[in-house]
Specification:
0% strand; mainly alpha; 186 residues; globular
């Protein structure tokens, strides 16, 4: 009974949603902090690494944290957003090791963000994301964007055939029954 409740694919997708939203929501303020005093960030973090164009790279780091966080929260182009965050966290981890050695207090948060972004890249955004909705639209209506460009409506025939052409995993995820739903409805 418990196996059927706790190991359904819907809970895996919900866990990915929680991981994406919390990672994005907790990381986004770091990007805004960089933008508040970009020259201070460039002096403190980019110049010690002797990287060229420190102010420009500081703007790139802030943009990747803000933009990547929004992409994670929305689930839109999720792997690209997670890759941007992964790159920024890689440089931040390198900076922490170069300047302070293996100080666990500095590396702790950075490695958590790194591992979250890496996990999202490997696992994908899950079912509760804009990426998944776009994928379903493309599978249901492969000519969706071609028709919308020419202001034509999708024919009734393609709508009738759309359920037949769905892959099995999409059909299974559409027929999810909440656990204990029979108990709650009676």
């Amino acid at each position: 009974m418990l196996n059927s409740i706790f190991y359904r694919p819907i809970f895996v997708d919900f866990a990915l949603l929680v991981l994406r939203v919390f990672t994005g929501a907790l990381l986004i303020h770091h990007g805004f902090e960089k933008l508040n005093d970009i020259n201070n960030f460039a002096d403190a973090f980019v110049r010690p690494l002797h990287l060229p164009f420190p102010v420009t790279l500081s703007y790139v780091a802030a943009a990747s944290e803000i933009g990547g966080s929004w992409l994670l929260i929305l689930g839109l182009v999720t792997r690209l957003g997670a890759s941007a965050i992964l790159g920024t966290m890689s440089v931040a981890i390198y900076h922490a090791i170069v300047t302070s050695g293996f100080n666990i207090y500095l590396l702790e948060l950075l490695t958590l963000y790194f591992s979250s972004a890496f996990s999202i890249i490997l696992l994908g955004p899950g079912m509760f994301s804009a990426d998944y909705l776009i994928m379903v639209i493309f599978k249901l209506y492969p000519d969706f964007f071609i028709f919308s460009l020419f202001n034509q409506q999708i024919s009734d025939q393609s709508r009738l055939n759309s359920n037949r052409d769905l892959p099995e995993d999409v059909k299974q995820k559409k027929s999810f029954d909440f656990p204990f739903s029979s108990f709650l409805s009676s």
